[in-house]
Amino acid sequence: MRTILVLSIKEKHAQDILGGSKKVEFRRIRPRLEKGDIVLIYAPRPIMALVGGFAVNKVIAAQPEKLWKQVGGISGLTKNQFTQYYSGSSMGFGICIDTTWRLGKPMALAVLKRSWFGFSPPQCFRYLRADEVRKARSSTMNLLPNPQLV
């Protein structure tokens, strides 16, 4: 079974990912992801909803300067934004994005809490448990474009 991660991503960056102009998502903490794993995008305030997702191409681990040289041009960030984000960090991680999808209608936090017992939005990210993966695959949630992905 593939790993599914729910990742909190600011609205602008979430829209850039789903629109195709942002091909890598930076993190200071390494997520346990590999090629083919799934990331569901939760957009925090003011949206407060799951808005879509993407399949992982790969995860790059490098010192921030090297990471910028490798993928800064496809990050959707300015060099200044990147530098501020990694200030004080000795390592950075880039989740390279393969295919993306938008949910037909964003799934609001209130709906998630009603239909997905115990759901709480992650501060940074969180992995789905096996029962949550089954729920995400179900036709009632319809969070994955192709349930065979997991």
List keywords for this structure.
alpha+beta; 5 helices; 150 residues
Explain what the structure shows.
- The chain has 150 residues and is α+β, with helices and mostly antiparallel strands.
- The N and C termini lie close together (6 Å).
- The chain has helices at residues 11-19, 64-71, 79-85, 109-115, 130-137, and strands spanning 4-8, 24-27, 38-43, 49-62, 92-108, 125-127.
- The model has no long low-confidence stretch (mean pLDDT 91).
- It is globular and about 45 Å long.
- The chain is 26% helix and 33% strand.
- It has a 6-stranded mixed beta sheet.
- It has one domain: Hypothetical protein (Archaeosine Trna-guanine Transglycosylase, Chain: A, domain 4, Roll), CATH 2.30.130.
- It contains 5 helices and 6 strands; from the N terminus they run βαβββααβαβα.
Topology:
Layout: E1 4-8, H1 11-19, E2 24-27, E3 38-43, E4 49-62, H2 64-71, H3 79-85, E5 92-108, H4 109-115, E6 125-127, H5 130-137
Parallel strand pairs: 1-3
Antiparallel strand pairs: 1-6, 2-5, 3-4, 4-5
Under the CATH scheme, the architecture is Roll
The parts where pLDDT drops under 50 for at least 5 residues are none
CATH class: Mainly Beta
Order of helices and strands: EHEEEHHEHEH
In percent, how much strand structure appears in the residues? 25-35%
CATH homologous superfamily designation = Hypothetical protein
Do you know the CATH topology?
Answer: Archaeosine Trna-guanine Transglycosylase, Chain: A, domain 4
Give helix % range. Answer: 25-40%
Determine Rg (CA atoms, Å).
15 Å
- Compute the number of helices: 5
Q: Provide mean pLDDT, rounded.
A: 91
Strand order of the largest sheet: 2-5-4-3-1-6
Give the N-to-C terminal Cα separation: 6 Å
